[in-house]
Amino acid sequence: MTPYIKAVCISDAKGQTKTPVARVELKTNFGIAGDAHAGADTHRQVSLLDEVSIDIMRQKGYDAADGDFGENLVTAKLPINELGIGTILQLGPEVQLKVSQIGKACHTPCAIGQRTGECIMPTEGIFARVLKDGVVKAGDEIKIIKLVNRAAIQAAVITVSDRCHAGAARDESGPTISQILADSLKANIAEQCIVPDESEAIIDCLRRFSEPERFIDLIFTTGGTGFAPRDVTPEAAAAVIDRPAPGIVEAIRQA
Fold it and tell me: Which range of residues forms the domain containing residue 200?
């Protein structure tokens, strides 16, 4: 049977259960209009949970309603546990989502866990960014446009450059590294970003991409390794790394 949306839900505050509504409007790189979790500054713009996971809670004796676990979209017949970061879904005729995170760290304590006794979004749910605008409602079909297996290598590429960040120069090294990773390792490029030659910006990006719930296996930086006063990438990386492995760097240089 074709996967479909069973319910669409929103809330006006984070950490709360959500309420089913007739339809929702999704905005590119923002999320669902009127939902507390929407925003251009987050990669967790939309949350999805399949009805199979909710049914398990019902079998445990909890009278679960759609939205009770903080999910925006309750799906049916969608193999959520097979969808890796980078998977692209089409909802109805217009909307497209890109899976950006598997599960999450739960707030302690959160209102959902207090009410249900157990919050299953951290282990059963997925999160996504909105790629294309549109309206979705219960009953809309879900199509898997691009499937990224959860076993695939997930990589992030950070270009460090004042000029590229300001738009004064074109970033060529970042896309080149991404292409090499995709071709040689069949890696999914989960994140690509350009930051200025500033320690705080580099460190923030490295830490965000290193969060366990992001499931990113490799992070590459390019730029900022020269002798100019603002070339601070090595120092910024050293502030984040727990255990350096210089042999890997040497192997890359000699390859």
Answer: 154-254
Residue 196 sits in the same domain as residue 228: yes
How much is the pLDDT for 202?
98
* Per-residue exposure over 131-145, b if at least 16 CB sit within 10 Å of its own CB, e if not: beebbbebebebeee
Q: What does the alpha-carbon distance between residue 38 and residue 26 come to, in Å, rounded to a whole number?
A: 9
> pLDDT value at position 17?
86
pLDDT of residue 115: 61
Q: What does pTM read for this prediction?
A: 0.83
Domain tally, the chain: 2
CA distance 230 to 126: 38
Same domain, 170 and 201: yes
Which residues are within 8 A (CB) of 22 and not within 5 positions of it... i.e. 6 or more apart?
8, 137, 138
pLDDT mean for each 10 residues of the chain (255 residues): 96 89 97 93 93 87 85 96 96 97 70 63 89 98 96 97 98 98 96 97 96 90 95 97 90 85
Rounded to whole angstroms, the Cα distance separating 141 from 75 reads: 10
Residue 43 in 3-state DSSP? coil
Domain check: are 23 and 109 in the same one?
A: yes
Q: Look at residues 116, 146, 176 and tell me which one is the last residue of a structural domain.
A: 146
CA-only gyration radius of the chain, Å? 20
Domain boundary among 120, 146, 172: 146
